[in-house]
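your task:
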Amino acid sequence: MQISHATVGRLEIHGIADARPAPVDPTRSYPEVPRAAWEPHRRWLTGDGLFQPDLGCFVVRAPAGVVLIDAGIGPGPVPYLGDARGILRDALGTLGIGAEAVAAVIFTHLHFDHVGWASSPGPDGRNRPTFPRARYFVGRTEWDFWDRGPENVMAHHRDAFAEIVRPVEAAGLLTVVADGSSPIEGFVYRRLPGNTPGHQGVMATSQGERCLFAADICHSPAQIAETQWSHRSDVDPAAGRATRRTVFGELADTGTLLAFGHFPRGADLGHVRRDAGGWTWHSLGRSD
């Protein structure tokens, strides 16, 4: 278990890899990027030159309580990931956080690897909210997309919505909020289209310091420099490219921390800085 750490004002941020799937050829995840293009970015591949992202989420200790940004893959087993099982519950225990202590769960989007622990099986085998005292939040555009049962998404995403997110709705714990609004004090949604129609980041602010939980605008640190690269999960690659350029252009060299759930722990929290050719990633490198 590896957990990364950062502090923003009065916020304590912990990055958790709920799971790490088997590595794959990078052309599987980035079909339009030839293998040779990865050579300047080999440090972000395995020793065998394969791509292996973390499937992560973030825990934030805030003055108002514990906030979870996304919810990993869940307890599993997850067939799509070779029956992988998530470790978020154990990681929370390591941090001294019980399920009842989580006050809010803020979804950036509703892909299966971001909602997995939203609910989990109870004694009777039926899924119930994993965090019974939390309010769960999602943006309006994202909710409407999944709520109407889209046909143009992979089955494991649709299944996760029906099996994992619907029980939270049924329990009356889910709140759909306007895009760009503030679900709770100190946390504001920001539209970051590309990965899904309603994909949003979350900007957290405390004592004048900021952290943008940028979700899936990038799946690899290589995309900080290679903003034209698109992951195969992006529903609108052109919008994703525009989002990356806008975010990096705005936040580079500002001191704003960025958090990416799919980057390796230790590289998932850091800053974007300008260089002659565009932008580079400077991670905090803090994990245990």
In short: The domain at 3-283 is CATH 3.60.15.10 (Metallo-beta-lactamase; Chain A). The longest helix spans residues 155-170.
